[in-house]
C-alpha cells in the first residue's frame, strides 16, 4: 500500500492518535478547570457578597457556593 499524500494517516493509526490527543486534552483541561475555579471563586464571592445583597436583598454566599456559581457560569456561557 502506498503512503497517503500530505501526511494523512491510515484509519487505525488515526484513531490511536485521536484517542491519545483526547486523553491528553482531558488530562490538561480538568486540572486547569479546577485551578481556575479555586482562583476565580474568591472574586465571584466578593462580587456577589458586595453587590447582590445590597441591590436585590439576596443572601451572602459561601466559598463552595462561589465555586458552584463559577462552574455554572462557565457551563452556561462557554462558547464551545
Q: How would you characterize the overall build of this protein?
A:
The chain is mainly α and 80 residues long. The chain has a domain at 31-80. It has 2 helices and no strands. It has helices at 11-56, 63-77. It is elongated.
Topology overview:
Blueprint: H1 11-56, H2 63-77
Helix pairs in contact: 1-2
Query: Helix and strand string, N-terminal first?
Result: HH
Percent in strands:
under 5%
**Any idea what the radius of gyration is?**
21 Å
- Would you tell me the structural class of the helices and strands? mainly alpha
> Count of DSSP E strands?
0
Number of helices: 2
Q: Tell me the distance between the termini.
A: 39 Å
Outline:
elongated
> Residue-averaged pLDDT, rounded?
83
Helix percentage? over 70%
Assembly category? single chain
Please outline what is shown here.
The chain is 76% helix and 0% strand.
Considering the chains and any ligands shown, give keywords for the structure:
single chain, 80 residues, mainly alpha, 2 helices, 76% helix, elongated
Amino acid at each position: 500500500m502506498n503512503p497517503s499524500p500530505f501526511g494523512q494517516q491510515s484509519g487505525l493509526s488515526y484513531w490511536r492518535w485521536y484517542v491519545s490527543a483526547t486523553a491528553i486534552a482531558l488530562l490538561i483541561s480538568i486540572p486547569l478547570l479546577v485551578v481556575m475555579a479555586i482562583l476565580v471563586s474568591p472574586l465571584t464571592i466578593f462580587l456577589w457578597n458586595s453587590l447582590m445583597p445590597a441591590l436585590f436583598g439576596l443572601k451572602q454566599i459561601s466559598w463552595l457556593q462561589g465555586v458552584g456559581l463559577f462552574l455554572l457560569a462557565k457551563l452556561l456561557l462557554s462558547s464551545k
